[in-house]
Amino acid sequence: MTEGKNKPLQSANRALVRLLRFIGRGPALVTDHGAHLDISLEQSAERRQVEKPVLEQAISAGLLRLEENRLYPQDTVRAFLKRAMVKERDEIFQEQHRLLDVVSLEVAGERQTVRRNELSSPLLALVRLKDRDGQPFFPPDALDAGERLSSDFHRGLLSPRITASWEPRLSKRMKGQTSGAQDLSDSALSARLRFSKAADAMGPELAGVAIDVCCFEKGLELVERERQWPVRSAKLMLRAALQALARHYAPPPPPTRKRDSHHWGAKDYRPNL
Length: 273
Prior knowledge:
Structural class: alpha+beta
Distance between the termini: 78 Å
Number of domains: 2
Order of helices and strands: HEEEHEEHEEHHHHHH
Largest sheet: 5 strands, antiparallel
Oligomer: single chain
Number of helices: 9
């Protein structure tokens, strides 16, 4: 889970890929110099220095064959290099579309340092938005309300199923029951009730954009295209929706009423009307 543990493995894989690309041009001669190996192609004067563990890894994986002091590439080299190129392109794409942040989490009772992608969820990406004064465009309580709405959405099993279900159709259905409501647990039913109350608190004008972003994880630009809204209008509607949702989850205290002042007068006191 930590970044430091993956660096030696990544550097070893890159050295293996460089060796296979070099050997793929034809048979090569191997000269042992103790600390490293000197590999030279038979067809040209090109040379390359390789560490012994890298060559041993290539031979044990069946990618290269060593006969005396000659190396021969095997038929599996081309497929291995294709997979390595695809993986490298995927890593480059992931680096361009993620914002990593180091956070500390408690896993199995122990604190561990892990990396979190700030762009993995639209709500995490909203943290970076600022207003004209440099302040967060979405208040922290509004984002917390969006996370709470998303949690009730998934706990209530409201997400549409897009994969095949291998559960028996009549597993827990009672006689005369037409829906699967009986199969839901009490926690799922409670989450659905909380979700319904939260949507009613936001109102029909604001609930849709909040559900699209927080629950279905749609980006702001996608919401604007689907609803045919002007540019940069979705974030305004979303902020209003999340602020209303935050007031629903944590309603402000009622205003205190001032008590009427009393006046103690003399025996013949008469108030002025």
